[in-house]
Design a protein that fits this description.
By secondary structure, this protein is of the alpha+beta class. The chain has 10 helices and 11 strands. Strand 4 and strand 5 form a beta hairpin. The longest helix is centred in the middle third of the chain and has 21 residues. Keywords: DNA-binding, Transcription, Transcription regulation.
């Protein structure tokens, strides 16, 4: 099963750049392939087991565990069974900045944003209560039991409390991973820019001066997915976005997503999402709360 990737797409809105995503009971194994974004992200496991990889380090999260993805860090999530229930919270760090060039901004928030500092990816259950509060606030806002301004004030307070807890517990550390993922980021960027065309192992290997045999193994080892699976993921995500945001026909959507065979596109889409492209458009299915 496939879900959202970077994240060339914006998260949140101008009025509220805080986003929350909820994925539960996929019913089968899935992986959200490696990606990164400029926002700060908190991953919270509500139930089940979630495999999380951040900057090359892999973890297994259980109910109540939380993980932090600092801006720019490569990461992926997945489940072998699909029975996991988890939330992700994304926001730019300037969302909780007072923008006064004070010590908080200068010594903590800006270094976190620029990558000079990071928060230890695995914070276990240290953030359970705060994550549950964020979920409650967002649910109340969606139920229209409190105003958007009230919800935003409460959200910012909790996020600042989260940063405070990370600071007090010593989870804010020097970022020694900033230079490790350069090649991986270049690979992801190259594929994101060219996925609608044909990308062969030979061409991909030549681009990064690696043999076909090695590039295949390298990609699988670092991204836990094959190159062809990753390209398929991007094409289907692009198609899903076009179905949501445009009036393009299914045929045009397939062509603009890199598929030359429309029947194959429809089969692939249905296999990935459990619904045909046309029914998906009409249903308005979204993973975002």
């Amino acid at each position: 099963m496939y879900f959202e990737l970077k994240e060339n797409k914006p998260h949140g809105t101008k009025d509220n750049p805080f986003s929350i995503y909820h994925i539960e009971n996929a019913g089968r194994s899935f992986q959200i392939p490696v990606h990164w974004h400029d926002e700060f992200e908190i991953i919270y496991v509500k139930s089940g087991l979630l495999t999380v990889s951040i900057s090359g380090e892999s973890y297994i999260g259980k109910a109540g565990d939380a993980f932090v993805v600092s801006p720019g860090n490569l990461h992926l999530m997945g489940s072998q069974t699909g029975t996991v229930d988890y939330f992700t919270f994304l926001f730019p760090l300037k969302y909780i900045s007072f923008r006064t060039d004070d010590m908080l901004d200068d010594k903590l928030l800006e270094p976190l944003n620029s990558g000079h500092l990071m928060i230890n990816p695995r914070v276990k259950d240290s953030a359970k209560e705060l994550c549950e509060q964020l979920i409650d606030i967002y649910m109340a806002e969606n139920d229209e039991t409190e105003s958007k301004i009230t919800a935003q004030i409460k959200t910012k307070i909790i996020l600042l409390q989260f940063i405070l807890e990370m600071w007090k517990k010593g989870f804010v550390i020097e970022n020694d991973t900033s230079g490790r993922n350069i090649v991986e980021k270049e690979m992801v960027s190259y594929i994101q820019q060219n996925f609608t065309g044909k990308i062969s192992l030979k061409e991909f290997g030549e681009q990064f001066h690696l043999s076909e045999k090695y590039i295949s193994r390298y990609f699988k080892e670092h991204f836990h997915i094959t190159l062809s699976q990753y390209i398929t993921y991007l094409r289907l995500e692009n198609a899903k976005q076009l179905l949501q945001d445009t009036d393009l026909s299914v045929t045009e959507t397939a062509m603009q997503s890199g598929y030359q065979n429309v029947s194959y596109f429809i089969r692939s889409f249905k296999k990935a999402y459990g619904i045909s492209p046309l029914k998906y458009r009409n249903s308005g299915i979204l993973t975002k709360i």
